C-alpha cells in the first residue's frame, strides 16, 4: 500500500536541528537571548509590530484576552468556525462568548453578523483567518472600535500572509499566532501575541511571566533590595524556551519558501478539482494574500463522510476543520444550542481538509486528486 499522507506535517531542515543544538550547548535553555531574537525575527514578518513569544497558540489567545483586560461580565464576539481555544480562552477569563455566523464561502467571521452581535458589553471582536485566508479585518475593526472594543485577529493559520497589502499582525489591535507542527512554521509547540499598542504589549509580557514586575519604577515597594520582584496582577508561566525560539528563528528564514509551496499545492488542487461535480473549491477574496494552512474542500450533497472514509481507506489523511465551537458539550452545558450559526454549520457539514504541507510533492497531490475524482 502507498505511504500514508498526513493532512499536515512539519518541515525540519538540518539548519533547524543545528540551531536547536547550538542552544543546547549554550548557557540559556530558557529566558535567554534566543527568545528576544525570535521575537525580533517574527516582527520582521508583521510589519515591525512587536511580538511576545508564548508556549502555544492557545496560550497566545489567553494572554491576548488578559492584555485586553477581559473579566467576568464582558462579552467576546467570535466565529464558531475555529478550534475551540479561540472561545475557551475568553470563557476562562469569565467572558460571555457570543458566536456570530460566518461567510458561507470563506468560513470567516461575517461582517454583518458581527455587527449584529456587538453590544455595549463587547470588549473584543475575535476574527479567525480560517485556512489562512485573512478575515475582513478593516470592516471588523471598525465595528469593534465603534463600540470601544478591540479587534483580535486569531492568525493561527495565517502568519506570513497579508490583507489589502498589509502584513498579518500589523492590522488588528492584537494578533495571535500558533507554531504547532502542522502550521505555517513551527517551534514544536509555541505561539505569539503581537500588538502595536505599548500598554497591551506590557500587559501581555507580564501575564506570560506570572505578572512579575521587576522595574523599580513600577514597584510598590522598590527599596526592598536588588532581588525584589512583585506581582500586581495574576499571570501564568507561558514563557517559550530558547530551545524552541531558536527553532522558530530558523524556520522563519524559510517562511517565504513555505508560503510559495503551499500556494502551488493549493493552485494544483483547485485546477484539478474545479470541474468535479459534487465539490466546491475554496475562494480567495480580492486583496487577500493567504498563506494556505488548509485546503478546505467542500463536499456537497451530504457525501463528506463517505469521501472522508474513502480517502482514509486509501491512506490519505484528510481531516475535518472544525466542529462549530458551540457544539462542544462544554458550551452545550452553558446553554448554547445547535442552529445558532447556520452558515457555520453548513460549512462544517461539507468541509474536508486535503493534505497540504511544503514537502508534499506534485505526485502526492495528484494521488489525492485521483482518489477524489475516482470517488465521484
TrEMBL record:
The keyword Transmembrane does not apply. PANTHER family: DTDP-4-AMINO-4,6-DIDEOXYGALACTOSE TRANSAMINASE, TRANSAMINASE. The lineage of its organism: Bacteria, Bacillati, Actinomycetota, Actinomycetes, Pseudonocardiales. It comes from Amycolatopsis eburnea. Pfam families: DegT_DnrJ_EryC1. CDD domains: AHBA_syn. This is UDP-4-amino-4, 6-dideoxy-N-acetyl-beta-L-altrosamine transaminase. Its cofactor is pyridoxal 5'-phosphate. The active site is at 183 (proton acceptor).
